[in-house]
């Protein structure tokens, strides 16, 4: 398999964790987002959105969107499972993951922040926008799992929820968010960081890390 990504992309980070948990190897093909390499014609030919990650399977199939990639990995390599067997629990895990991947991350990612700069917002306001998006999303996620047993987001094993949470907390810290306001999320993060698959997927462990 080939994984097109960027070391600091939280969406790529999620997929790296999933691959590690499944014990799968992939060739990492970096695309430097700040240099616009994701907009190169050759890359747009396989991912017309010009986003990372993109996964090329051994059979040559092209998969985009991190949650779709992770669920495909989970369905084709079911151990360890990243979603509970119970339909209600599975829906709750997906809802948490989507609160981050669909509602929080997109409004503070590089593309959106670049557009805010194009519209003339000063850098301080751009950073505050990103911090606000993180605070809003993480506060909701804290409530979503407040009553869930730990140490992970949903019990004693990592799920899709944890794969989304850990990279998002890294984003939040980068934008100066005081994450101590989210003790339940920090509990899950601490548990995840004890797992080698999460540690090895961290941005600073990647070959393209700056």
Mean pLDDT: 97
| Shape, principal axes of CA atoms | globular
Q: Using only CA atoms, what is the Rg?
A: 17 Å
The structural class is alpha+beta
The total count of helices amounts to: 9
- Beta strands, count: 4
Helix content: 40-55%
Largest sheet: 4 strands, mixed
Query: H/E series, N to C?
Result: EHEHEEHHHHHHH
Low-confidence stretches: none
Q: Span between N and C termini?
A: 24 Å
Beta strand %: 5-15%
- The main sheet orders its strands as 2-1-3-4
How is this structure best described in words?
It is a single chain. The protein is α+β, with helices and mostly antiparallel strands and 210 residues long. Helices cover 50% and strands 7% of the residues. It is built from 9 helices and 4 strands. The chain has a 4-stranded mixed sheet with strand order 2-1-3-4, covered by helices on one side. Strand 1 (2-5), helix 1 and strand 2 form a beta-alpha-beta unit. Helix 4 (87-101) packs parallel to helix 7. It is globular. The model has no long low-confidence stretch (mean pLDDT 97).
